[in-house]
Amino acid sequence: MNGENFLNIEKGNNIKKYYVCDAEGNELFSCEDLIECHDFSGMSYHYLFAFSGVSNHNLGGLVNGQFVTLKSSLFSGRLDVAFTVRKIFKKKNGLFYLYIEDLRQGAYEFGTLAFLQLRANDTGRIWLDMKGDSKRIYLSASYLLNGELCWLNKEPIIIEGKYIHDYYSFFCEIGYALSGDFGYAGNSIYSLGDILSGLSKKDLVWRDSDISLKAIDNTIPSGYQGRSSYDLLAVVEENFNLIVE
Predict the structure, then answer these.
(1) Residues 6+ apart with CB under 8 A from 232
(2) Largest distance between two CA atoms of the chain
(3) Fewer CB under 10 Å: which end of the chain, C or N?
(4) CA distances from 26 to 19, 57, 62, 91 (A)
């Protein structure tokens, strides 16, 4: 699914696009739209979802403290997010709010759906307008729109190191280099290796490699202690005929 198709579906009327199910997979309710909201509670470990056009299929079965899963008819089933319902709010204007916690999100990042509403049809390296960890939202959007890369149809592939300003922009750039707008090749060294290992081996040119490798090393997230840019370089070299410039 590309960005244009996503926006066309978003403009449709009375389409149930999102579903919330209990731990056994039974549908509790469906809705026409989902809005990721800012949490004004001051409890930063909570998230807030607002649902519009909600069906009352089995809404009475939803209770505080319940573990549920959010699914979607969009994105070929790639949106599959589990969380615990912290608190339920019902509003007379047709909106239904859930404070949630313990978000088990996979590739999804909170804010991705709002990002896609605004920028799904944009082209080019749009992550360059984003700072720091916010690039994870672009990577999440890329995964939802296009899924994992399965094949390559061009050669040589060129990574422009001048656009790699930090750890996450490396994954943005390699996805873009491999398959263009919203291309997805993982969001960590682990997912990168899994995805690249399934591709045919082609020539890859990494320009301005020294500058970009230093930028990656200076911004590696705290959860990747002991890793360096050369671990990423080794994964790329293992799966491509690598030429560094």
Answers:
(1) 170, 189, 192, 216
(2) 61
(3) C
(4) 10, 10, 11, 24
Place of tokens 């809705």: 31
64 pLDDT more than 80: yes
pLDDT at 55 over 80: yes
pLDDT value, residue 141: 97
User: What phi and psi values does residue 88 have, to the nearest 5 degrees?
Assistant: -110, 135
| pLDDT tens-place string over residues 167-224 | 999 999 999 999 999 999 999 988 999 999 989 999 999 999 999 999 999 999 988 8
Task: Characterize the bridge pairing of strands 203-207 and 80-90.
Answer: unpaired
Q: Are 86 and 95 in contact (CB under 8 A)?
A: no
Q: What domains lie within the chain, and their CATH numbers?
A: 3-104 (2.40.10), 122-244 (no CATH)
pTM as predicted: 0.90
Task: Calculate what percentage of the chain has a pLDDT beyond 70.
Answer: 91
Helix, strand and coil percent figures for the chain, each rounded to 5: 35, 25, 40
Is the N-terminal amide bond of 156 cis, ω within 30° of 0? yes
Q: What is the pLDDT of residue 5?
A: 52
Rounded CA-CA distance 70/5 in Å is: 21
81, 108 Cβ separation under 8 angstroms: yes
User: CA 171, 142, 67, 46 torsion: positive or negative?
Assistant: positive
Hey, what are 182's tokens?
Answer: 């919203």
Residue 12 has pLDDT above 60, yes or no: no
Complete DSSP assignment for 167-229: HHHHHHHHHHHHHSTT----SSHHHHHHHHTTSPP-EEEEETHHHHHHHHHTT--GGGTT--H
